Amino acid sequence: MIIISGVGGIIFDVDHFAGDDGPGIRSVVYFKGCPLRCVWCHSPESQSAEPESIFIKSNCNSCYVCADEGCINGAQRTCGYYVSVRDLLDEILPQRAFFDSSGGGVTLSGGEPLIQQNFITELLQELQKEKIHTIIETSLMCDPEVIRSIYPLVDTFYCDVKVIDPDKHKRYTGYTNDVILSNIELLSRLKGQTGIVLRVPLIPDHTDSSDDITEIYKFAVKLGISNVHLLPYNPSAPAKYEWLKKKYPLGVLERQSTHHLNELISIAPDIINAKTSGT
Predict the structure, then answer these.
(1) Which segment of 79-93, 234-248, 257-271 scores lowest on mean pLDDT?
(2) Superfamily assignment of 9-51+81-276 in CATH?
(3) What is this structure's pTM?
(4) Hey, CA dihedral for 24, 153, 159, 43, is it positive or negative?
């Protein structure tokens, strides 16, 4: 597993006025570095824990200025930069009027925020002092002690559950899911079920069958977790692989139909609040 030490952090974006990463208006901080290698990863630029060069062809007008002075159109750029907690607070805190008026707050996303434990601990402590609502979007692919340390500082965990079958999980992400499922069980005992939302990326022909989703519902019922968000496939993913001069492994896939999404919601047990979320 990747572990980034020290109190500084590396991120690749901060998105203000976000509406799909928790309740209300939110600022989303995107952390760099992830231990998983999901074949459908929508943010391949988040995987490396180091800054890296990306090239956005659609922004390039062949002016060749980038050869000497850097790209004025944002086609050639460095993805990832180091920040202090103070840096982030100075950017986030001016947004608090929007948080307060909408019931929003700050969401830590990625990549995988939990691999930057020291940094996010300090950041979350400061946000807690400011009484700002916090969410972490995480795979929970981490040492259980990280969860034990950080859970009191987080209002809600959005936990990704790709698929229950361990062989499929290893084939799709590079790892089996025993650590992840065990950590979700641990978190459910520490945090309580109302502080956890399970999020399921629906990848056509990979994770979006009725059988796969039924197994996830069973897992949620076993732990008493009632909120399950189904994330429809976003067909814009392949474009980001071009930034890194990589080929998208899954080729051309289409977003699920409304009919299929409704079917997956309809098979949820009565105690499960299943809904679609995201784009």
Answers:
(1) 234-248
(2) Aldolase class I (3.20.20.70)
(3) 0.91
(4) positive
